[in-house]
């Protein structure tokens, strides 16, 4: 318990210390998770909407498949990406293993199904109505999609926040494909895992608090943006 | 195309002066590598990227050609690795030793009953059903422990034998929490000692000797392996300067060396 | 746009809710559809708008089947309009925006229409704060702003006050004459049908019971179903 | 790549082997994650709905706090739970550390904010209308809540699926508070992490596939239930 | 239930949309509210139902302020009804279910009402597949099934066909006489107001311009606003 309080104090100290390494870790975390979330969003939001408003054979199966992918364990994603991009793997020539790029790829695999799934669910009910309005007013396919995104923005926002939360908090995948290499691929979560295994609970909790503060900040910004629009 | 691969080589992470080192969690957890590797980079220009994994995975990554060099502590497995041509040659780098740690008051009186005989100590666990935690993760430490049981002819089973399947640090914490006993390398134990209610119960048995070795991965595995960089690292580790730095590590903080250099 | 309906049928789980052998709505007519609740009027008009797939049969638009181009030239104002979660101005401007019309032009046209429909004061109000009748006016404005060649109205004045209904009917007549539009209008207001429509169709139980010149159908209906329905006109 | 295919084969073999240990691990995984998800749902669904339909001071702040908690890193949750329930911690007397109970507690902390957040978002828009209908028809507070849950079931379903996905796939928290003890607290994800650290990629992937198959099964059941209702 | 409104006011962001000095609606009256779109009619009725908090002023129900018990005895049928995502039967049965009435009794009462309202054939249909008028009938049935003492109707017949409107008015009259209910009804159909209401209030711009006996207000209005509005009655 004391350690939790100590950790909170350390967190502030840590932030105020302007330690280059800490800022490097925080910066890399943000870079990796935001890139992964943004790329995922661009693909997953339209996919989730299409899944909801289009009818096609095997749709029920695809939906359940997406739901299942929402529980993809990060370690497995990490492992598969590792095997694909490792030196001897089929995509080894790209040489991205143990780089932030590999971490982004792995997180995209984790975040995408989550965003697709939540967007799908939010669109299912109201999507048809919006689509009808767009079509009757002469919108083409692309314009209809844009309108759907605009109208369903609250739900889409929730989806992205959830996906981003997954990205910033997960450790299994980035640990395997990034390797937690100091000064290179060490992010907040892998640092926490390492510190914890070294028994340095205080610093671990301190970084955890920094992570949460950052999440709060990012959520607040997203939230503001979304509020202003509506 | 060849051109594309060359392009990658220039920006790639293990060409030029950068190598990938797979090592066990104990070297990372103790902080040794963080301490000495920056000096290596200064001296030689070789940048070492450390991936800390279990011994099992470290050797597997070597076999797959994923890393350039391995630093581990499971001599038997390492020798096999070289014999199977996955590595060029194995070098001794340093050693430390394993210690049996347990609650400060030593409820099973193992310190007294077994003196410095680890085999005797282990046999007591089976009889008294005092909690013993095993790494259970196929690591160097785990392999050493299994060998001890084998020598004893005991197949450890039962509620007293807790197989954790985790790294050294985590298992020490579990031991602390469950007020049990476990085998740890001295370095990791010392680096965590200040947060623990655990003491060294038994040490000094010759069977608890823990030798670290370094192996460069066979460059024939694929074109991406940086054999030259690996050899620079190995030579530096075995050099007088490298060995000296290893010996100094821990002196200021613990008043003793955590690793004793013993390159031949 | 001329409309030709042939053997049109719609069923849900084997239950037929619409079945029309043949119906032609000539170019430039103001066509009314009347009939009891659940007769299939909305189903028909949605099918014309291309929003519901027929189970059987087809609809021809000036001889051709429906295309994106034809869809661009027609619109449907819903019985329960869905307004976009933005201001009234943006709602009405939307069809023009997606047609890539210049900003000033949009401004000009929307402003004029707002004035004509006496809802200037709502220009910057958020759509979800509008009263029922205000929302219906905005939906109507959004439907006619881009001068569609075929205008489909599903009880589009049901929630308007009497004064607004008159104002809107005037607007519609003017729009009809200016643009040579074809207008198809569902209404429960038989007075309104009399005031506006050239031709009317009376629907019941998914079928078109009677269709023809408005004065003929409303004053001298042939079917006793129509007669029965019409005699309640004062409602 | 070969390992991925091999893993798939091994997964089937593993399932058909009827190995007691494997089935024990799978069973414990299901027990822990389902218990955590069910308990979380019972608390989080009403909370999410209340958050959406009630107005109270600091509401905006609470909402952003919930969003932030959605990105709570499992390692941190594990650590905090560990410190609370450890021998010397304030709740140490309960002696639940390294038991499935501790794992359930940790997962509840992870899953709850996710369910609250998604339910909140789905209720925000339509909730008011449903509440009005309930109130005008004379429903009391409890009955109104029940009606809200019934009407918003599609979104609630998505929230629970997402939360469950988080529970079954996370490893950081259960590893720390459970300890991955063989035959005791070893679940699928901790087994995967262990196997991976042993370099046994095939078995790791095999268990991962088993995990996904189970997720698929559970999602399908939930999906069926939800479909039948509507 | 008798209603007394005192100094009632509602503003959104400083803009006042409703401001009523005083208005009393006696127990057992059939009270109509008419007026142009955006006059504040829905705002007023929602405030009476306790769904909107007034910015200022208060409403008294037989002398008391609103409680859960009073809420249980009244209901509001919305302009755009929201039906539960279940069958028609379950929608209508819902108010009885939450009042813990026995299953057979529920079955009996709902069946009778379905018959009276001529919508038996919709009993097992899913609510979201109903036509506009059918949905409105179901919402109405759901509102009157538990015999509320105060029934608030917001344009509840706007989407009904003329025959159904007549049928429903008959139902309402019967219900009114049987239960001694107070009914407050917003309508744009001035004929309907004449057919049903004892008293009417004419609202405009958030204010009650004129209130009194229906025949007096509708035939000899005092305010020129009312006069202007009423003269469009044939719409
Ligand atoms: N998905 C569906 N499943 C079953 N029946 C349906 C479905 N959709 C519509 N219906 C039925 O089809 C019939 C025609 O509906 P439609 O909306 O076209 O009626 P309408 O003539 O517009 O009535 P109103 O005047 O009340 O708006 C109705 O009886 C309705 O219940
Ligand atoms: N949240 C809000 N913000 C601003 N204006 C609002 C808000 N809610 C309602 N209004 C305005 O209040 C006025 C009264 O609305 P109300 O719904 O009471 O009208 P009404 O008399 O029922 O009209 P109708 O006959 O069209 O249903 C309208 O002009 C509406 O635009
Ligand atoms: Mg209709
Ligand atoms: Mg209204």
Mean of residue pLDDT of chain C?
93
Ions, cofactors and other ligands present here are: adenosine-5'-triphosphate, magnesium ion
> Which H/E pattern describes the elements of chain C?
EEEHEHEHHHEHEHEEHH
Low-pLDDT segments, ≥5 res of chain A: none
Number of domains of chain A: 1
The amount of beta strand of chain C, in percent, is 25-35%
Dominant shape of chain C: globular
How many beta strands in the DSSP annotation of chain C?
Answer: 9
Binned strand content of chain A: under 5%
Q: Helicity range of the residues of chain C?
A: 25-40%
CATH architect. name of chain C: 3-Layer(aba) Sandwich
Number of helices of chain A: 10
Strand runs of chain A, count: 0
CATH class descriptor name of chain C: Alpha Beta
In CATH terms, the superfamily of chain C is P-loop containing nucleotide triphosphate hydrolases
End-to-end CA span of chain C: 33 Å
Largest sheet of chain A: none
**Strand arrangement, major sheet of chain C:** 5-6-7-3-8-9
**Integer tally of domains of chain C:** 1
Given as residue ranges, the uncertain stretches of chain C (5+ residues, pLDDT < 50) are none
Structure description:
The complex is a heteropentamer, with 2 copies of chain A (230 residues), 1 copy of chain B (264 residues) and 2 copies of chain C (235 residues). Chain A is built from 10 helices and no strands. Chain A is mainly alpha-helical and 230 residues long. Chain A has a single domain, classed as MetI-like fold (Orthogonal Bundle), CATH 1.10.3720.10. In chain A, 61% of the residues are buried. The mean pLDDT of chain A is 89. In chain B, helix 7 crosses helix 8. In chain B, 45% of the residues lie in helices and 23% in strands. Chain C has one domain: P-loop containing nucleotide triphosphate hydrolases (Rossmann fold, 3-Layer(aba) Sandwich), CATH 3.40.50. In chain C, the strands form 2 sheets. In chain C, strands 5-6-7-3-8-9 form a 6-stranded mixed β-sheet, sandwiched between helices. The longest helix of chain C has 18 residues. Chains in contact: A-B, A-C, A-D, B-D, C-E, D-E. Chains A and D meet through helix 3, helix 4, helix 5, helix 7 and helix 9 of A and helix 3, helix 4, helix 5, helix 7 and helix 9 of D. Bound molecules: adenosine-5'-triphosphate (2 copies) and magnesium ion (2 copies).
């Amino acid at each position: 318990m004391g350690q939790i309080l100590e950790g909170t104090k350390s967190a502030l100290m840590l932030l105020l210390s302007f330690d280059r390494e800490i800022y490097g870790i925080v910066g890399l975390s943000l870079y990796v998770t935001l890139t992964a979330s943004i790329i995922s969003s661009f693909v997953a939001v339209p996919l989730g909407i299409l899944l909801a408003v289009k009818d096609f054979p095997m749709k029920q199966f695809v939906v359940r498949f997406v739901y299942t992918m929402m529980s993809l364990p990060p370690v497995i994603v990490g492992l598969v990406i590792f095997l694909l991009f490792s030196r001897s793997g089929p995509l080894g020539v790209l040489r991205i293993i143990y780089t932030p790029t590999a971490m982004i790829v792995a997180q995209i695999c984790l975040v995408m199904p989550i965003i697709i799934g939540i967007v799908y669910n939010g669109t299912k009910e109201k999507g048809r109505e919006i689509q009808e309005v767009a079509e009757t007013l002469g919108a083409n396919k692309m314009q209809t999609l844009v309108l759907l995104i605009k109208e369903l923005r609250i739900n889409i926002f929730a989806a992205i926040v959830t996906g981003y939360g997954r990205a910033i908090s997960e450790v299994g995948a980035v640990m395997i494909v990034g390797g937690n290499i100091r000064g290179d691929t060490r992010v907040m979560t892998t640092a926490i895992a390492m510190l914890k295994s070294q028994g340095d609970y205080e610093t671990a909790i301190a970084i955890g608090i920094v992570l949460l503060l950052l999440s709060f900040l990012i959520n607040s910004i997203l939230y503001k943006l979304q509020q202003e629009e509506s | 195309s060849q051109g594309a691969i060359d392009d990658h080589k220039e920006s790639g992470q293990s060409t030029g002066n950068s190598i990938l080192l797979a090592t066990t969690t104990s070297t990372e957890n103790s902080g040794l590598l963080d301490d000495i590797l920056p000096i290596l980079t200064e001296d030689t220009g070789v940048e070492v990227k450390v991936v800390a994994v279990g011994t099992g995975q470290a050797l597997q990554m070597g076999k797959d050609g994923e890393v350039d060099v391995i630093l581990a502590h499971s001599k038997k497995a390492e020798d096999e690795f070289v014999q199977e041509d996955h590595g060029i040659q194995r070098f001794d780098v340093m050693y430390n030793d394993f210690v049996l740690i347990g609650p400060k008051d030593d409820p099973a009186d193992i310190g007294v009953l077994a003196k410095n005989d680890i085999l005797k100590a282990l046999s007591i666990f089976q009889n008294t059903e005092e909690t013993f935690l095993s790494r259970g993760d196929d690591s160097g430490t785990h392999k050493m422990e299994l060998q001890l049981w084998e020598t004893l002819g005991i197949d450890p089973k039962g509620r007293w034998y807790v197989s954790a399947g985790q790294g050294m640090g985590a298992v020490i914490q579990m031991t602390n929490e469950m007020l049990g006993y476990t085998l740890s390398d001295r370095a990791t134990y010392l680096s965590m000692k200040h947060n623990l209610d655990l003491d060294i119960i038994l040490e000094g048995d010759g069977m608890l000797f823990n030798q670290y070795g370094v192996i460069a991965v066979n460059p024939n595995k694929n074109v991406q392996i940086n054999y030259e960089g690996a050899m620079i690292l190995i030579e530096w580790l075995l050099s007088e300067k490298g060995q000296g730095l290893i010996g100094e590590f821990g002196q200021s903080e613990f008043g003793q060396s955590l690793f004793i250099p013993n390159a031949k | 746009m001329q409309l030709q309906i042939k053997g049109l049928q719609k069923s849900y789980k084997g239950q037929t809710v619409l079945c029309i052998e043949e119906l032609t709505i000539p170019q430039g007519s103001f066509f009314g559809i009347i009939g009891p609740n659940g007769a299939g009027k909305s189903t028909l008009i949605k099918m014309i708008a291309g929003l519901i797939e027929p189970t059987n049969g087809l609809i021809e638009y000036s001889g051709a089947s429906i295309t994106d181009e034809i869809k661009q030239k027609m619109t449907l104002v819903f019985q329960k309009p869905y307004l976009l979660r933005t201001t009234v101005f943006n709602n009405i401007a939307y069809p023009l925006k997606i047609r890539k019309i210049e900003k000033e032009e949009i401004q000009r046209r929307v402003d004029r229409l707002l004035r004509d429909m006496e809802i200037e004061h709502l220009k910057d109000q958020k759509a979800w704060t509008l009263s029922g009748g205000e929302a219906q006016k905005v939906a109507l404005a959004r439907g006619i702003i881009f001068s569609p060649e075929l205008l489909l109205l599903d009880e589009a004045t049901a929630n308007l006050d009497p004064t607004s209904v008159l104002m809107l009917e005037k607007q519609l007549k003017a729009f009809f004459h200016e643009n040579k539009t074809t207008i198809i209008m569902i209404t429960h207001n038989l007075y309104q049908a009399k005031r506006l429509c050239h031709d009317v169709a009376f629907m019941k139980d998914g079928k078109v019971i009677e269709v023809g010149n408005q004065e003929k159908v409303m004053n001298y209906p042939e079917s006793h179903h129509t007669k029965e329905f019409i005699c309640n006109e004062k409602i």
